[in-house]
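Take a specimen:
=====
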Amino acid sequence: MISSGQMLAGTAQADITPEPGIELCGFAVRPQPSASVLDRLAIRALYLEDGPERFLWLHADLLALDQQLVARIRKRVEVEAGIAAGRLMVSATHTHSGPGTIRLIGCGRPVPAYTAWVEGQFATAARGALSQCEPCELWAAEGRCELAVDRRGFASAHTDPRVGAIAWRRKDGSFKAVVLSYAMHAVCLRGTGISADWPGEAARVLKQSLRGGPVVLACAGACCNLNPPSVGVAAPQMRGWGRQIAASILPESCFVPVAPVCPGRSLLKVKRRLVTLPLEPSSPQEVMRYADACLAEAGGHREFGPKFRLAVETWRQDMMRRLADGRLPFAEAELFGLALGKVVFIGVNAELFSQFGTLIRANGARAVYPVSCANGMIGYVPTLEAYDEGGYEVDWSMLFYSMLRPKRGSLELLVQNAGALVAEVAA
């Protein structure tokens, strides 16, 4: 019998490090292919059970996962482990120094054999987590880190310095698992070395620093406008920044027990919500005009070289084909709410501007932490201010994802729905 304030927690880890020679995903301008392994890549699994509630989180050192791969993983885990899709979150650290498991034009070609192997490793990690459960108490910490910078250089500059963490501790006080969220792109490195970037280093430091050697899921929160102080630094600098992020929630005394929202109630609650986002442009004429306008932009060619034309022309062909097939221009955003007492993680299948977390918290006092790149990827979702300012995130990012841009107000619509989802899981 699990006592009040406790739940069952299971963890596992599966290696997904490829051999050097595979292309790395995330940058249009970088040397290819990979030439070395700077640190290992992994899938980290966390299984939770509290009364009738069950939840499985699979978190990988990858840039992102496309919707079809997530659907296959969910189906496989449901068959092999009995975890329904609505109780499974599959996320990525967004490292730009790992192989591609998503189509990103000109930014590293995915290798089907590697993707198939990774899919199997997800299932292996899921089975391992379910087989290693034990009663744990829930603890939480919140730190601050002023490392991230708004990379856009516009008046709407914003950062989110919160570092949110939650931990599962055994009866003897040792740590079994930790989840950390910090809003900063995993783009410290830009060379030919395979690496999990700062999330991998932060996970390693916490595993070594906390008793019990916990499995650590380090997530890049709402970070699409936020970079580290420099991009393309040497590995020792990346590791230093990872240590700095981890240090913001250390030592162990930073963690405090988490109580249920209401006495006697369970600590765990999971809900998800699907939100339809209208996209633009939505007609063949608009697609042609937009592609021509992009090709006339000297800045895109200057920044990305030949890859910019490749992205524009591929995008144009893809969009015209979709419209000819009668596929309506909309995207389905998936919001995944995980409530752990008074702490809530919100997974979203997009790259979100950092204002997302701040706007949700403005509506209440709860500790809410976003998790980007969760359950697929629909691309960048900018703020209203960003649409007026322009920039890569607004004007060009969807060319590389080969997707249409969400219409103005989409991020604010997601904030509204995420706030409602937080209220639901808190009820």
